[in-house]
Amino acid sequence: MTYVPMRPVNLTLSDFMDLGFHLMDTRPGVSPDAFVTELVLHWLAIDKERHALRKNGRPMRGFQWKNVFLPEGTCLRTSHNHHIEYAKVIGDHIHSDDDDSVTPSAFVNRHAKGRNAWRLIWLRFPGDEHWSRAADCRKRVIVPLQKFATELAERV
Prior knowledge:
The chain is α+β, with helices and mostly antiparallel strands and 156 residues long. 45% of the residues lie in helices and 21% in strands.
């Protein structure tokens, strides 16, 4: 058994006895020390999460498409035979206009097969006014990574 340093937490005798008797009725075999430890750890986990939400805001949701992150609210557009279709990132999924959850490839290949999603999907990120081709967004991510890898290789 490993030594775990402990620090006492003081309760009034009446509160300690009340807790002990309550645990005998509701959780036989659970000691007041173990129960209080479990209770404090549970409370700490919840309170730390609450504090992080207050400090950092809600976690960003979205869809990770290879190396391009599509934040929640990103709109997708594609066309086939002069018919334009739209989809939107809601939560962690892409939903088409008819509310099907789709991947980028499934979205672009709904009416034809073998179409390249990077070339045929246009994206409008939240807050942007203009549409950008997915392949161009991908290049903006890949080129800096390639430069970084080249510089790293030259250093070695």
